[in-house]
Amino acid sequence: MQPGPDPVVDLLRNIGPSVAEICADTRVAAAQAEALCKTLDPGLAEKVTFRPRRDWLPSVTELEEQIDEALAGSIALSSGAVLHIDETRAMTVIDVDSGQARLEGIGAKAERSLLKVNLDAVPEIARQIRLRDIGGIIVVDFIDLR
Questions:
Q1: C-alpha angle with apex 36: 125 to 68, nearest 5 degrees?
Q2: Which tens digits make up the pLDDT trace of 31-55?
Q3: N or C: which end of the chain has fewer CB within 10 A?
Q4: Model confidence over 50-109: pLDDT tens digits?
Q5: How far apart are CA 38 and CA 44, in angstroms?
Q6: Helix/strand/coil (H/E/C) assignment for every residue in 91-125
């Protein structure tokens, strides 16, 4: 029987661009994470830091808040748009809502703005599917375009 994938590799591969810092509690782990980040996404490598465990151990409350935020029904995107995720027994529905997104221009220019919002939503949708371990029927309702 083969061992499962390395959880650190899996975590770094699926990490989002909004992560401000990647902390490792040993110098060896920090060096390994930095080397792996250089191959996966060079921009992440500069976010890896070594900090002894006693300096960064979050409280249970902080962890619960972060988990609740990651699994919330609505996720705000950097563009100002919002993803609404509803899970049922039969399917999962993900709705892309333009929300507070800045839509510029009229006609073709507005259409490009809406397309940009839809494209901004795609990586977060993929991340949420992996994070929530969503399977089965998944319906994604993007913003309507011409």
A1: 35
A2: 888 888 888 777 888 888 888 776 6
A3: N
A4: 887 766 666 666 777 777 777 788 888 888 888 999 998 899 999 998 876 666 666 667
A5: 7
A6: EEEEEEECCCCCCCCCCHHHHHHHHHHHHHHHHHH
